[in-house]
Structures are given as C-alpha cells and as structure tokens.
Design brief:
mainly alpha, elongated
C-alpha cells in the first residue's frame, strides 16, 4: 500500500511540475488535495497509521535494546526515555508535531 501511495503522490507531483495547463489547473489540483486531506476518513486513517507506526517502532526498539543491551548509545536511550515520560504525563504531541492520542 505504501508503494502505491508513493507512486500516486509522485505521479501527481510530476504532473503538477510538468503540466502546461498553467496556474488554474495547479490551483484546482491544490484545492482537491486539500479537500482529500481534510476528509475525516483520510485523517482517521492517517492517525491510525501513525499510531501503528509508533507501536511498531516501540516494539522494534525493545527488540533491539534487548539484544544490544548496554551497548545502546546514551543519546538514543535518553531520547526514548524522555519521549516515554512525556507521553506518560499526557503530552498530546511529540517533537515532530504528530498527535499521540
């Protein structure tokens, strides 16, 4: 699914950059993209994917840290601990602006 989405986005960007239709067509595409992005179903799907990504990243971190143990760089370990503490205290966003709810 990710590869299809990447292909479609690349196709759209290529069309916008390569089109000779001018500004009017660009604005029309931009408006359509904004409508799709604001669609509740799209937003819910994106949020669900983000939550699933965070879940898998957490599992991967634990799997790696169990194998690596004390060899984990302090900067990585501290960063993960600070994110966990922040999320445990009810912070709604991480450093990248994505929601953790």
């Amino acid at each position: 699914m990710r590869y299809r989405l990447t292909f479609v986005v690349g196709l759209a960007v290529g069309y916008v950059l390569g089109t000779k239709a001018g500004r009017e067509r660009y604005e029309q595409l931009r408006k359509s993209a904004r409508q799709v992005a604001q669609n509740p179903a799209v937003r819910n799907t994106a949020e669900s994917a983000a939550q699933q990504g965070r879940h898998f990243a957490d599992r991967a971190y634990h799997a790696v840290s169990d194998r690596v143990g004390e060899r984990m760089p302090d900067s990585v370990a501290q960063r993960v601990r600070s994110l966990r503490e922040r999320n445990a205290h009810g912070a709604g966003h991480d450093d990248w602006g994505s929601s953790t709810t």
